[in-house]
Design a protein that fits this description.
Layout (H helix, E strand, L loop, with lengths): L4 H9 L1 H17 L1 H14 L4 H11 L5 H26 L11 H8 L13 H16 L2 H4 L2 H14 L5 H22 L4 H5 L33 E6 L6 H12 L10 H9 L11 E6 L1 H8 L1 H17 L2 E5 L1
Parallel strand pairs: 1-2, 2-3
Helix pairs in contact: 2-3, 3-9, 4-5, 5-7, 5-10, 7-9, 7-10, 9-10, 13-15, 14-15
Amino acid sequence: MQLTAIALWLNTAFAAFDESIAVAVHKLYLAAPGFFTPFLTLITYMGKGGAFLILLSIVLMLFRPTRRYGAAMLLGLAIGALITNICVKPLVARPRPYTWDGSVYQKYWIELGRHTESDKSFPSGHMTAAMAASTAVFLRGRRRISWTAFLFALAMGISRIYLSVHYATDVLGGVLTGGIGGVAGYFLSLRIPEWFYTMDFRSLLPGNRQRGRHEAGREPARRTAGREPARRTVVIDGGRFSSLRGFYAEASRLFGSPEGQPLSNLDALNDALRGGLGGRDVYAPLTIRWKNSEKSRQELGEEMFEKIVEVIRAEETGHDCKLILE
C-alpha cells in the first residue's frame, strides 16, 4: 500500500504509542463487553457525519436562552469540518488501522463488529465534530459547569479507538482541528449582531404577531377617550453601579424580571423589556434615560455597554420605547 510521506511518518513515529493505547482501550471490551460496546457504539453514531450535533445546534438556536450556544456550535462544526475534510484528510490520506492485515487493530475491529468507514483516517472527523461542539459550549458557558461538555468529546475519542476505526493519533489530530474550529466558532459568534440573539423567531412566521415570549395573547394598550397612554420614564443611573453585576441588579430593581429571578444576562434583560417592565403594558410609551452613561461605558467596557444599548434600542423598532444617553 502506497502511503503519503505524512502518513508514513505517523505510522512509523507513533507506532508504539498508537498500539499501546489501542491495547489499553480494548481492556474495556474484555472487562464488560455487554456495557461498553453498545454505549460506545451509540456515542460514535452520534458523531456520524456531524448530523446529530448539527441538528442539536439548530435546535439550541431556536430558543433565546440557548441561542448563543447553538450559534457558536454550528460555526465551530462548520469550520472544523472544513479544516478536516477539505484540507487535512486529503493531504495526509492515512489508511484506517483495520486495513492492515494481521494487525492487532484488525483483530479488535473484527471482534467489535467490523464498523467500516469510507474516508481516510487522520484526523478523526467524529472527534473533530465532538471537540468543536464541546469547545464552543465551554467557551460560551460558565466554566465551572460548561467544562462537562468535554466529557462527550472524551467519550467520542474513546469510542473511535475502542471500535478500532482510528489510531490514537487520529483522535489527537481531531482534538486539535476540533479545538481550532470551536475557538474560531466562538469568536465568530461574538461578532453576530445582538438582535439575532434576542429576537423571537416566531415573529417571522406568517400571520404571527408575537414579538416576545411574554406577549402571548396580550392586546395593545387601549386609548382612553381618544388619548394616548401616558409616557413613563425610567432612569438608569450609572452612579448607582460600577460593574456588570451591579448593572443587572439595578436593571432588576427597575424593570423586574419575567421569572422572578434577578437578571443575569442579556437574554434575561431582553425578556424583562418585552415582558412588561415592572407591570407596564409592553405597548405603552416608555422613555429610558441612562444618566452617567459614559461612566457606565468605561466601567462595563465598550463592547458590553454597546450590547446592552443594542438590546434596549431593539425595542424602539417594535414598541414606543426611547433610549436617551446622558
